[in-house]
Amino acid sequence: MSSFHQPTLFSFLNGGNKKNNKKKDNECNNNEKKPNATTSKEETGLKRKIIDKNKEEELNESNNKNVKKTNDTSLKEEINLKKRKIINDDNEEKEVFKKPKSTDTSMDIDENTNSQDSTKIKKAEKKTLTIFGSQDSEYQDFNWKAGEPVPYAVLCKTFENIENTTKRIKIQDYLTKLLVAIIKLSPNNLLETIYLCLNRICPEYEGLELGIGETILIKAIGEATGRSAKSIKTDIEKQGDLGNVAQMSKSNQKTLFKPKPLTVPAVFKGLKEIAMFTGNQSQTRKINKIKGLLIACNGNEPKYLIRSLEGKLRIGLAEQTVLMSIGQAIVLSENMEKRKSKERLESEITKAIETIKSIYSELPSYDIIIPALLENGIQNLSSICKLTPGIPLKPMLAHPTKSLTEVLNRFENLTFTCEYKYDGERAQIHKLENGECRIYSRNMENLSNKYPDIVERIPRIAKNDVTSFVLDCEAVAWDKENKCILPFQVLSTRKRKNVEAGDISVQVCVFAFDCLYLNGKSLIKKTFKERREALHNSFTPIEGEFTFAKNVNANNVDEIQTFLEQSVNDSCEGLMIKTLEVDSSYEPSKRSRNWLKVKKDYISGGIGDSLDLVVIGAYTGRGKRTGSYGGYLLACYDNENEEYQSICKIGTGFSDEQLEKHTEFFKQHIITKPKPYYRVGDAKPDIWFDAVQVWEVKCADLSISPVHQAAVGLVDPVKGISLRFPRFLRIRDDKTPEMATTSEQVADMYNQQVVISKNNAASQSGGVDDDFEY
DNA sequence: GTATACTAATTGC
DNA sequence: CTCAGACGCATTCGG
DNA sequence: CCGAATGCGTCTGAGGCAATTAGTATAC
């Protein structure tokens, strides 16, 4: 009913005093531990098993887990910590969620001063209110005064809180609390804070990147702490995260003098500067800047600073949650002094979250939204920030489905339509009122300079009375001579920057499927039926340059099945299925995955490719896969040379349980050097294995590979073949490694792909393929 | 000094 | 891009 | 009738291949 929940409000109001909270949490843990531990034995499921297994450690260490976290290096501890987190969350669930709920009712009688509970809440509320402008605050330890820059430590403390829970409402809560305080104390820092939470430095469409990777970070950490790159690398394997390694290296190090504490704006400015270093010696300058920041870090700051630089905060906080927190925080901060009923606040927050999400999906720029929000409040925001040609909007995405029956179940009794899913690059085409044309990618990067050929043709696709528009399309590599679609791999060879019309080697055809804005009006709230009519009425196809996506308004399985097969036969990936009327607006904020996609490889036993491959190596896992192998190297068997040829790595498709089992199993088959009959090209795994097990693996396509060696010499003289989107299906215990898929089979599968065989046929006959029409 | 080869980073799917 | 896990929410099931 | 179980959608973070680009190191 409402996305805002009472525990959120309660814990927010009650969270005024950090020390009280902490104490309470500990009490909860102590009280809950024993009953929880005993009941867990009767329960099944992995989660429960983990709890049981680690019960003892949990009892001993739960109270000083933060201390442990920063000081303990061993792998075992890290894993325990991971599991402990689950247990803590379990306890939280019992305490934090039940207790506030029981007080909910008293919140309802807002003015009832007789109730003991409600007086408690008032006290809590009062404490929260005193945050602002006084020393007695949640953030008092950080010496943060109104009007002054937000200390980086405050942000990192919030990150730590967030990282230590998996509860989404709680995460949202921690961030909201911080944002409210910032709005009240240092509103100028709100924008920077939000960017740091999201690990970004500017709107996506501005395209500024950090240009920092692991290698440079290792160098910087090494120089800042006096450690060798090699020892840092071994630590990463143990700790699974460069941020943790930096934290460790830093805490072991004694600093001679204390630099001024970091602030949020200073860190943000530092990141932006790093991003803007270019040209000769820029890497050295980046390293020096990082070193400077690192040296100024205190407490847990190195961990989060380094993770920010890595581009992955990995604390369970991302865009959607940040947006919700912004909405919640702005309402709460606007109503701090007012006494509004719980219901009233709740509904205002729900509405604000909806508003923020929808505004952001139409105009994904915090640079614009946040200042407008601070200045004008949430009420007038949608009149200031709205869909504008020239600024990309968040694209609608599709939900994968496993079968056509699933599609029919979901869209039962609704009118829907099926479209070809072309294998190319998403292209959002904008024409501004002033005539300027731009193209944006799925991630809102500006592609105008990549596709000058498309930009040039944009004015010709619209009918005369059209002044401005935004279209949603797919750009697909196109063979002009034979009038057929080329593989994605061909498209990706196009230059990306400073493309001159003259040096375009790969032609593209644009397949349009939606119209989001037309002649000064946004169409996103209209039904897809209406939008598609607008598209078809206002634009004209040009052969080989601009076409509408092929579609059929079928509604029975047979028809759709035929259309699906036809799409694959026409070199497409499968179908997109969209409702025409009900719930068919283009509002990614509502449901970003409102469309369904049926890809040929999803359908089990169907057209999709599945291979039986041998495991010959592995890579150490990072993050939540620390302590197990995060990915494996697979090979096919070559009869001719009696060797195993690498075909791909694989890192998805297995459950946590399987992942652990694989790790256990393959630890018994480690070999120190690769066998002479392993041919792996540049795919060097961290650990080599004896060829003992066969895995069934599924993929979407096969491609010519610059690294892997499968079927080398059969399709390409020097290059092998690899798999696109590989995923683990199951262990094939019935097969020995010699019975794995062979190189010949791999080569055959490659050649049998429609898009390959069609093009081979076309280039051999030199004529137009008659079966191929648009 | 300039051309070339290599590596790391980013981005598409 | 694929996939699994955790969470939150809604609905159904069973004592 | 209420709490437990179940099912579904969303969100997040693990992991994949292959291409260009930018910066650096090396060779001539």
From TrEMBL:
Pfam families: DNA_ligase_A_C (PF04679), DNA_ligase_A_M (PF01068), DNA_ligase_A_N (PF04675). Its main location: nucleus. Residues 335-362 form a coiled coil. GO terms for biological process: cell division; DNA biosynthetic process; DNA recombination; DNA repair; Okazaki fragment processing involved in mitotic DNA replication. InterPro entries: ATP-dep_DNA_ligase, DNA_ligase_ATP-dep, DNA_ligase_ATP-dep_C, DNA_ligase_ATP-dep_cent, DNA_ligase_ATP-dep_CS, DNA_ligase_ATP-dep_N, DNA_ligase_N_sf, NA-bd_OB-fold. Keywords: ATP-binding, Cell cycle, Cell division, Coiled coil, DNA damage, DNA recombination, DNA repair, DNA replication, Ligase, Nucleotide-binding, Nucleus. It catalyses: ATP + (deoxyribonucleotide)n-3'-hydroxyl + 5'-phospho-(deoxyribonucleotide)m = (deoxyribonucleotide)n+m + AMP + diphosphate. One of its GO terms (molecular function) is ATP binding. Its EC number is 6.5.1.1. One of its GO terms (cellular component) is mitochondrion. Residues 23-57 have a biased composition (Basic and acidic residues). NCBIfam families: dnl1. Belongs to the ATP-dependent DNA ligase family. This is DNA ligase. It comes from Piromyces finnis.
